[in-house]
Amino acid sequence: MMRWIVASSMHLRYLIVVIAAAVMAVGVAQLRTMPVDVLPEFAPPYVEIQAEALGLSAPEVENLVTLDVEELEAGVSWVKTIRSTSVPGMSSVVLIFEPGTDFMRARQLTAERLTQTFVLPNVFQSLGLLPPKSATSRVLLVGLSSKTLSPIEMGVLTQWTIRPALLAVPGVANISVWGQRDRQLQVLVDQARLRKYGVKIDSVVENTGNAMFVSLLSFLQASYPGTGGFFDTPQQRFEVRHVLPISTAAELAQVPVYEQKKDDGSPLLLGDLGRVVEGHQPLIGACSSSRSFPGATRWT
Fold it and tell me: Most CB contacts within 10 A, which of 53, 137, 173, 283?
C-alpha cells in the first residue's frame, strides 16, 4: 500500500504539487477568520438558572423551587440533560443542550420559559440566568482585604467600584464575588420585650419595612413607593421628592410602632423591642482565603 502511494506520488508529482499549493492557499485564507483561543471550547453548551430562597431548607427548596423550574424548562428544544442542586436557601438548575446548539439561541429559549415563573409559588427572591462562561471557567482569583475597612465596607467597595471597573475591561465576561456582605439595617428583637409590650413579630416586620424608602417584601406597602406628587404655581410645576430621613441604625431605632404605647403613654419605638444594628445578609456556603488575607472578599 505504501509502495503504491509513493509510486503514484512520484508518477503524478506535478498534480501533487498543485494540490499541496491549493491546500496551503486555503489554509492561509482560513487563518485570518478562524477563532483563536488558548484552549478550545470542548464543553457542550449549557445554561444555568439560579434562584435564592432565603430561609428555606434544602428539602423545601427542592420541592417548592427546583422541581417547578425543572418542569418549566423540561420542554425546551435541544435539551439533552437537566441537572439540579438544592441547598439551604439556593436552587441551581443546569440545562445541557445537544452539541452544536447555538449558545445564544439556547439562552433565549431558556429565558422565554422563565417568563412563566409567575405561576410558581412566591417563595424565592430572584430567579435568573447566570452569565455565560467558557469551559476553562475562571481565569483569575483575587483576595481583597483591609486593615481599616470592615467586611461590609469592603463589600460596598467591591460592588460599586471594583466590579464595574473590571467589567469595563475588554475581554472580561463576568465577575463573581464570594463573601460579599451587603449593608443592612437589622432589628434584632427580644422575645421577652415583645411579650412585655404585647407586640407581634409581624408588626415589627411591617413597621421596619415601611420605614424604608423601598422594601423588598412584596406584601408591604413600601414595596410600591409611588411618587411624591406635585403642586402647581401660576408659573411652573414643582415635584415633591422623597428624602429618606433614615440612614443609620440609631435613626431606625427611633421609628415608632403603630398604635403602641408604653405604660407612661410615650410612643413605643423599635429600639425598645431589641437591638437595632448595622449588619449583613445571611451568608450561604463558605469562602476560603489566603493566610495573608484573613476574612478576605474574593472576586474573579
Answer: 53
